[in-house]
Write a structure and sequence with these properties.
single chain, alpha+beta, 2 helices
Length: 87
Amino acid sequence: MLQEALTNVVRHAGTDTCRVGVAYGADEVTVEVEDDGRGGLPAGIGYGIAGMRERVALLHGRFTAGPRPEGGFRVAARLPVPPAETR
């Protein structure tokens, strides 16, 4: 997910920077990529976001992607951490 989100920033955002956040808790890992660029592609163009959504769903996680109210774009995933006895 992270690689695809960063690739989308480079290809589509029209900005030289983005912010990446990773947080790890007892129950989940959260990954976020935000930029201040011009936003994403029109709906229905490309497969990057759909692919990220599918991969996160396979891991029983939650995924969001879309324009930020203040401009730019945000991609975020919350992935559950398996119980210790199954790791």
